[in-house]
Amino acid sequence: MPDAGLARQSTVYRAGTLGRRPAVPTDFAELERRAKRASSAEAWAYVAGGAGEGRTMRHNREAFDRWAIVPRMAAGAAGRDLSIELLGTRLPSALLLAPVGAGALMGRDSDLAIAAGAAATGTPYIFSNQGCNPMEETAAAMGDTPRWFQLYWSKDERLVDSLIARAERIGAGALVVTLDTTVLGWRPQDLNLGSLPFAKGLGIAQYTSDPVFREIVAERAGLPRERPKVTLGAIRALLAMSRNHPGSFWDNLRSPIPRASVETFLDIYSNPSLTWEQLAGLKQRTGLPIVLKGILTSDDARRALEIGVDAIVVSNHGGRQVDNAIASLDALAEIRAALGPAPTLLFDSGIRSGADVFTALAVGADAVLLGRPHLYGFVLAGAHGVAEVISNVIAELDLTMALTGARTIAEITRDLVRERR
Questions:
Q1: Whose CB among 2, 30, 272, 299 lies 3.0–4.6 Å from 182's, allowing a Cys bridge?
Q2: Spatial CB neighbours of 191, under 8 Å, sequence gap ≥ 6
Q3: Residue numbers annotated as active site
């Protein structure tokens, strides 16, 4: 992406001379404000909300504020090269799209639109295990653009193997095992609305499209179940389940399968008993590179490397799981200092701009995952909005590199940032 920043500025300013302003704001604060206006209360609570009092979300941003970028003059940084080598694949930049579950709260076919927006910029997309479109359809929307698959380790091992096999068949470049959501954190924004998208069949498309999951549901569908009390809310929930389940709405409305699918998902989707011994056995179950997401301590990072994982994502799940947890950026600095330069460390939680990407790379990340911002672009302008957000972030990263004298991603080193005390 040579001169990505100048090219992006030129596109925006040239359109401006014709009276056209960007459909997607170029700063995060305005992007967030407009996205909130375009979202339902339930969608915004789920996507923008955090755990408890929101302290971890604030910690994530405060951690970035503690690091200052140190510009360098006359460094001859013309024609920057933003590309990197990651897990054996050459990527156009150090940016990937993080998995975000239940994206259809913000609009129909969210995963397809996000995939199309990512593909338009050549940006890898990590498909969410809690996606709203089957991974096969999402992969088709990406063409040749790299894709990874996020895995939530189910209580049913047959389902784990089935999801892994499907990820292999769609050409996933890595399996991203998310460790920090074996149970859902305490999320008051959702709780105060009594709103859980999965309970209405939203965000479980990877499951309802899976042959093993359908077998499990069929086994359970014939079992006696407590009949819910007929209320307006129960009727609305049944209609939502029927609408979100694959197949004909009217057929689903008469079938026990949509409700059984939701109940089965809620029972088995994630395994709170997951152990390091099980993780160590994953190498015998797949040939895909294995990435562990949700690591926040150097001890856990060392253990991950000891069992042979290929990369780690330092992440606190965007502040959505544990209130008052350590900021991901602080954890990244500690883990890189403890483990040295060799391990592949990815980072998410708190990234809002190209300057944030630069800071995370300087502190120790090899690549960065972008979460909420790309979903905000989606709710404003679909696939185009996703591409716009990506382009803006990459443009600012490129310009920041130019102004600090970094010609390549490898040259974004710790001496280009300074920690404030």
A1: 272
A2: none
A3: 317
